[in-house]
Design brief:
Number of domains: 1
Radius of gyration: 22 Å
Number of strands: 0
Shape: globular
Distance between the termini: 38 Å
Strand content: under 5%
Order of helices and strands: HHHHHHHH
Largest sheet: none
Length: about 200
């Protein structure tokens, strides 16, 4: 049976490799996506993996126990929100807010999910993690493409932030993930001396 320190070391080693790899892949996908005007299906094939990688990078910066328990729901939420693009693909351009993304690409969706999690104890963990994933989807969308109607229905204004701000945040999260992994690697794993041996050493000294 694999010991707990060994498992912890494996997780830390994977984090040290995965975090910068995810960052590089996100940048590479975005460079390709914005290098030309691709057909919508190609944009989706480039954008959805970047959403998954963004959520995965955030998870690596969080406590290990959290992402081990909630990664599936968070990752699902990070891409599932784009199901609201279906009406646009079917020709209902009026579903978008001011020519941008659908109204469900707003904080109201996150709030509804959080309220649902609070109201249904049995679904609290799953819905809460799903809401985090949706929030991370919005985090990327606010810095890419046409922006999002963040405060809909209170305001129809489409909100955008510079892509560099998003990239800077990802860089900070990568650094945090690496620092967490490094600190875990330096944590003492040796068991303390039994009390009898400690007393014997103290007497001999």
């Amino acid at each position: 049976m694999t010991s707990r320190p060994a498992v912890g070391g494996l997780v830390r080693n994977r984090t040290i490799v995965a975090a910068p790899t995810f960052l590089v892949l996100i940048v590479a996908l975005d460079v390709v996506q914005y290098s030309r005007n691709w057909p919508v299906p190609v944009v989706g094939l480039l954008d959805e993996p970047a959403h998954l990688l963004t959520a995965a990078l955030v998870l690596l910066a969080l406590p290990t126990r959290f992402w081990q328990r909630n990664a599936g729901w968070v990752l699902l939420g990070s891409v599932a929100l784009d199901i609201d693009h279906v009406p646009l693909f079917l020709g209902d351009a009026g579903f978008a807010v001011d020519g941008g993304r659908p109204p469900t690409h707003s904080l109201v969706t996150v709030v509804v999910l959080i309220l649902g999690a609070a109201a249904v104890p049995g679904l609290r963990r799953g819905l809460g993690a799903f809401a985090l994933g949706v929030g991370l989807h919005l985090l990327r969308d606010v810095a890419t493409g046409p922006g999002i109607p963040l405060l809909w229905p209170l305001a129809r204004a489409v909100v955008t932030v510079p892509y560099l701000a998003y990239l800077t945040l990802l860089g900070l999260l990568t650094g945090l993930a690496l620092v967490r992994a490094g600190l875990g690697h330096r944590s003492p794993t040796m068991n303390p001396l039994p009390a009898e041996q400690f007393d014997r050493r103290k007497t001999c000294g």
